[in-house]
Design a protein that fits this description.
elongated; 0% helix; 13 strands; Immunoglobulin-like; mainly beta; 133 residues; 4-stranded antiparallel beta sheet; 55% strand; 4-stranded mixed beta sheet
Length: 133
């Protein structure tokens, strides 16, 4: 099933039995008298993360990034680790609109620091964050 608005197609995601189904957006029909499955039409935007190691201690520096999408789509994206004097000017990546939790951990010189912040991705816009660590 798809919904079309003008020339744009929207992907449908299913929310069934209290959980978001992302496996190719398939909802399974269950054998019982009634079954409920809601679908959500979710607009998209872009997320852009700029990451800079402004206090590099050398090859042993570790930066770990987690991006947590809006509820109910809150499957945590696997943490990504980068080492050394890591710097990256982010490229926009298409994601569903909404409030994201951005978490990062910095391991440097035997010390671990954990940070988090929220980032809103607007419909058809760009949510951008710069992380200086």
């Amino acid at each position: 099933m798809q919904i079309q608005s003008g020339s744009e197609l929207y992907v449908l995601g299913w929310y069934q039995d209290g959980e978001y189904i992302s496996d190719n957006f398939r909802a399974t029909a269950q054998k019982r008298k009634t079954m409920e499955a809601d679908f959500h039409v979710v607009p998209y935007g872009n997320i852009k993360l700029n990451i800079y190691n402004v206090n590099c201690g050398g090859a042993g520096d570790e930066f770990i990034l987690e991006v947590i999408p809006p509820f109910p789509y809150s499957a945590i994206v696997s943490p990504v680790s980068r080492y050394g004097c890591y710097n990256q000017e982010g490229q926009p990546v298409e994601v569903i609109m909404g409030n994201y939790e951005i978490k990062w951990t910095v391991n440097r010189g035997g010390t671990t620091e954990v940070f988090s912040d929220n980032l809103f991705v607007p419909e058809n816009g760009v949510g951008e964050m710069t992380i200086n660590y």
